């Protein structure tokens, strides 16, 4: 019995010691720098800070602020209410793995990059109220595995695609211009089928179309054709697979068709250009032949050539009708015979066939006769 009582005492003491250690490890270190007109997050804060309130300043959460925030890795709560934050950049809170509450309400945020909340594995509350957010990509919330409350009140959001594996307990959506057409049906189904609680449900109203502005987004009556546009969760994966398969087949078929059409169009254009060039060249040649007969006349008239010496002698003999003596031939050969033709006209129609030789002595011809 003594041994049992001793063991029980030791067990109780160990439990007390562990509880004391856990309480000491959860000591809150709070720094309040509200309304200090800061433009940057201060760097001289104790690195053991757990709660940091920088509300009502001029902080933009730029690259420098992001670098400083990485050093406060013990933060569990961060408040940036009413600052000048416009964009939430990628990896803005990358090393704040202990952060549980992030409040960035009353800024001018209109862009949230895809990996803005990466690293916030323990985040439970995210407040983005009263900003200028037009739409939200559902993938940005995927890293927030432990998120319980999402506050989107007072933005410019008209529709919201619920991300997969989204296990919220509370969501605040009022103050947005909700478009209650068929595109909001998925959000309504999620609100009605999940365990999430829509805060201020009675004032979370539709803005468009006008005939539905008296309904809250959770109670909008949809027509049957809206339900046909959204597949059930059971068949969603099958529908997605079929759509991908059909789109792949159609794209490949379209590529083949477009390629064949391009090839046929290319060949027809080549043939047409060849025919046009051939017709133009032929027409040009015909017009040159008709409009320029001078070349033709020149070719016809160009029939003479310079006579050689033996050809000149033969021609003289045939012209006089009497063969010359050898002495005469020698006398003739002693002198250089030159035959000159003068072309008076390029082409004469009534030519008698005789050529006038200026070197023929007309006096000798009369004596011989």
From TrEMBL:
Residues 1-24 form the signal peptide. It comes from the Eukaryota. The chain crosses the membrane at residues 269-290. Residues 313-334 are annotated as: Disordered. Residues 317-334 have a biased composition (Polar residues). GO terms for cellular component: plasma membrane. Pathogen-recognition receptor which mediates the activation of TRAF2- and TRAF6 NF-kappa-B signaling pathways and induces the expression of pro-inflammatory cytokines. In kidney, prevents infection by uropathogenic bacteria by inducing the production of cytokines, chemokines and antimicrobial substances. In gut, involved in host-microbiota interactions, plays a critical role in promoting the recruitment of immune cells and intestinal inflammation. Interacts with TRAF2 and TRAF6. This is Leucine-rich repeat-containing protein 19. It comes from Sus scrofa (Pig). The gene is LRRC19.
């Amino acid at each position: 019995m003594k041994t049992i009582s001793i063991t029980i005492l030791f067990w109780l003491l160990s439990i007390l010691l562990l509880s004391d250690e856990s309480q000491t490890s959860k000591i809150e270190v709070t720094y309040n720098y509200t309304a200090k007109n800061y433009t940057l997050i201060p760097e001289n804060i104790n690195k053991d800070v757990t709660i940091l309130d920088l509300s009502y300043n001029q902080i933009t959460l730029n690259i420098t602020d992001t670098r400083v925030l990485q050093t406060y890795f013990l933060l569990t709560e961060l408040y940036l209410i009413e600052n000048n934050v416009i964009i939430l950049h990628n990896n803005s809170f990358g090393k704040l793995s202990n952060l549980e509450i992030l409040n960035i309400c009353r800024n001018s945020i209109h862009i949230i990059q895809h990996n803005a909340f990466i690293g916030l594995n323990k985040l439970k509350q995210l407040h983005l109220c009263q900003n200028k957010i037009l739409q939200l990509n559902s993938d940005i919330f995927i890293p927030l595995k432990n998120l319980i409350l999402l506050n989107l009140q007072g933005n410019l959001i008209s529709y919201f695609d619920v991300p997969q594996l989204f296990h919220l307990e509370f969501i605040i959506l009022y103050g947005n211009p909700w478009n209650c057409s068929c595109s909001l049906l998925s959000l309504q189904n999620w609100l009605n089928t999940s365990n999430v609680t829509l805060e201020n449900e009675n004032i979370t109203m539709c803005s468009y179309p006008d005939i539905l502005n008296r309904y809250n987004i959770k109670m909008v009556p949809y027509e049957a054709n809206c339900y046909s546009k959204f597949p059930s969760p059971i068949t969603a994966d099958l529908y997605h697979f079929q759509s991908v398969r059909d789109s792949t087949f159609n794209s490949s078929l379209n590529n083949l068709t477009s390629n064949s059409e391009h090839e046929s169009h290319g060949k027809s254009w080549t043939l047409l250009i060849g025919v046009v060039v051939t017709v133009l060249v032929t027409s040009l040649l015909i017009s040159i032949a008709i409009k320029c007969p001078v070349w033709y006349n020149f070719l016809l008239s160009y029939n003479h050539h310079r006579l050689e010496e033996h050809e000149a002698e033969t021609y003289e003999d045939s012209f006089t009708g009497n063969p010359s003596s050898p002495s005469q031939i020698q006398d003739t050969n002693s002198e250089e015979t030159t035959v000159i033709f003068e072309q008076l006209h390029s082409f004469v129609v009534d030519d008698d066939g005789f050529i006038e030789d200026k070197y023929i002595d007309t006096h000798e011809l009369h004596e011989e006769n």
